[in-house]
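tool_call predict_complex ligand=NAP
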Amino acid sequence: MSLQSFQMYINGESCEAVSAARFDSMDPSCAQPWASFPDANGDDVDIAVKAADAAFNGRAWRSLTATARGKLLRKLGDLISENGEQLAQLESRENGKLIRETRGQLAYLPEFFYYMAGLADKIEGETLPIDKPDMMAYTVREPIGVVAAIIPWNSPLYLTAIKVAPALAAGNTIVIKPSEHASASIVALAQLAEQAGFPAGVLNVVTGYGPSAGSALTSHPLVRHIAFTGGAATARHVVRASADNFAHLSLELGGKSPQIVFPDADIDSAVNGIVAGVFAASGQSCVAGSRLLIHESIYEEVLQKVADRAARIKIGKPSDADTEMGPMTTEAQLNIAENMVATALEQGAVLRHGGKRPDVNGGWYYEPTLLECQSPTDTLMQEEVFGPVAAAIPFKTEEEALALANDSRFGLAAGIWTRDIARAHRLCRDVRSGIIWVNTYRVVSAMAPIGGFGDSGYGREGGIDAVLSYTEKKTVWINLSSEPMADPFVMR
Ligand code: NAP
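tool_result ok
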């Protein structure tokens, strides 16, 4: 079968790598190569960053009013909406996410652009009631410069949208490095940006491997802000790279998010929330609710219902509309899930469901897997799997549930299932995580910040915070006095 050939997008043009090298990308649903991309290295990254820097300083972009930038973003949102089916098909093909889910995500994706378009001309400075006679002072928020966006493979379009929309709304330019496993949808997005009318160089995409293209991008001296989503090990490289150039940084990393179920909860709803949290997207979600903390009085009932639902999950090709769980995106991720389940069993965990590779079309599939752990210190209770694997443990009291929930170096998300409003608010106050869902799970909005505590990273994407994080503040002082400057050796 011949591979679909994609180019990358630099300075308003589709192009090959300077070296002319290419790499193949695999279709996870059948473990066969399906597409090929330019294999960018430092030379290509340098061209892309210089183009973004020239665009940042060039008239075509700088002379646009904030309102005009907002209109371009709105236009891009419209184009995404018009081309939603094609983008949904591409993302489903490249990372194996269900077509029913990518269609759903694409139906919402334009909202990120509309929301940030609306904020573009509301990025305001302040006039300061300054405590110095004869002085006036005000602040201005300015774009930072070239943004490097590093994207993982699990939700490439969504994770790109929440970076591109605020970064461009604030007047920056951007170079995106998608994952080598999921680049096609991002190249398609760049072409829509061109159609929308963004000037050349404002939005660029370099395709290639993390250690070469990604590393060259995050360490490039002209990059002023790095927006990274990915794993902790890569994040450490990125933090070190940013230190050399003092680039601004936001890190959206992984999690080991708890789902806490109390006896007064709507049990069937909690079971659905647990399934949504850890088996949807084959568990390849940063907010996967993979630690099940369940009150002892309902522990067996909840586990049995989760196991029964897991047994009925329809595993199959992501392109089939009735499939509920597709493949893992990479073979490496499948091996990690399998090895972590093996370690959990060695540590005494009890397997309640799953733990095997179903044979579907030769693809990288793993069953929805449910284990009961012996101790909160077990590896599976502490480490992210990034796969469809849930680890359960019972608790006796609310205090114990809280202690278990906070017994993690991560802090990305948490689910609380209770009808007791006071208890819900107590836990919202005391659980340490960036997102808390009460009696629901896996809800996102362009208006709501996303980000983590602890090893889940820092910085927030989504909401007003996001657009402000792509600006820096300038303070302007104006001397209103007509008197000459006094003593030059004394600070005024
Ligand atoms: P990853 O291996 O850390 O890769 C993330 C990105 O970094 C990819 O584009 C990768 O490129 C690139 N990269 C690799 N090495 C690099 C280097 N030395 N310098 C610069 N960039 C480099 O993560 P992943 O396996 O793709 O994604 C899974 C992780 O992302 C999980 O931990 C998950 O929890 C996290 N995640 C977090 C969120 C959130 O919003 N908090 C959302 C989604 C995922 P290549 O793929 O081409 O190597």
